[in-house]
Amino acid sequence: MKHEPTPLEIFLTKLAFLLYGKSVYKAFSDRLPLNGDEQVLDFGCGMGTVAFYVAKKIPRGHLTCLDISRRWLKTCRKTLRGYKNISFLSGESQPPTKDSFDVAYCHFVLHDIPERELEKVIPALAGALKSGGALVFREPFKETKKIALIKSLAEQNRLIPKDSRITDVPLMGNSLECIYIKQ
Ligand SMILES: C[S@@+](CC[C@H](N)C(=O)[O-])C[C@H]1O[C@@H](n2cnc3c(N)ncnc32)[C@H](O)[C@@H]1O
């Protein structure tokens, strides 16, 4: 279901970005498998908290920021003004093209998506990756049912688990981070 943020939600997210930019969002971006020339998809980019750090890491690559919410995308454009290697997509869950990304990441996005929609989103994300590409997600650890579904859908769609870790994220608590590689 489409949800547009209130001005208060946007304000609080900006505050979290100011307070925890390096410890939460940069730390996540530092663990993405990037060399500098990748095609990257930020699925559910929000205000661009992670994208702000990822864009700097791929000077010879390109970052596509996709969000279902026009208001978040507008805020994201402001966060990322000045960068040349970014495009923005307003999406109803479907990444745009097949076999085109080296890395696709979802940062606190998938647990919010209803199960029936996840059954379309995960295959679409898997399809959008090149062979050998990586899907990375970070979700609240307590969302055990959603996480089990996400993992099962990933494995049904040619994605092989490579690595996972639990991190303690301020305001969100323990969170699970997983990397899957497309066969
Ligand atoms: C909790 S926010 C996280 C934003 C950002 N990734 C971060 O960590 O700051 C979830 C974001 O996912 C977006 N979103 C939710 N469902 C979506 C869908 N089906 N397709 C694309 N974006 C979606 C929301 O609009 C929102 O911007």
Model description:
The structure is a single chain. The chain has 183 residues and is α/β, with parallel strands linked by helices. It has helices at 7-30, 51-57, 70-79, 115-128, 144-156, and strands at residues 39-43, 62-67, 86-90, 101-107, 129-140, 159-169, 173-182. It has one domain (7-182): Rossmann fold (3-Layer(aba) Sandwich), CATH 3.40.50. The chain is globular and about 40 Å long. The model has no long low-confidence stretch (mean pLDDT 95). Bound molecules: S-adenosylmethionine. S-adenosylmethionine binds at residues 44-46, 49-50, 66-69, 72, 91, 93, 107-109, 112-113.
Short descriptors:
alpha/beta; Rossmann fold; seven-stranded mixed β-sheet; 5 helices; globular; binds S-adenosylmethionine
Low-confidence stretches: none
The secondary-structure class comes to alpha/beta
Shape: globular
What order do the SSEs take from the amino end to the carboxyl end, as H and E?
A: HEHEHEEHEHEE
CATH class: Alpha Beta
Largest sheet: 7 strands, mixed
DSSP strand tally: 7
Bound molecules: S-adenosylmethionine
- Rounded to the nearest angstrom, the distance between the terminal CA atoms is 31 Å
* Spatial strand order of the main sheet: 3-2-1-4-5-7-6
CATH architecture: 3-Layer(aba) Sandwich
Helix proportion of residues, in percent?
A: 25-40%
Q: Helical stretch count?
A: 5
What's the CATH superfamily, by name? Vaccinia Virus protein VP39
| Average predicted confidence as pLDDT | 95
Fold-level CATH name? Rossmann fold
Strand content: 25-35%
Radius of gyration: 15 Å
Counted up, domains total 1
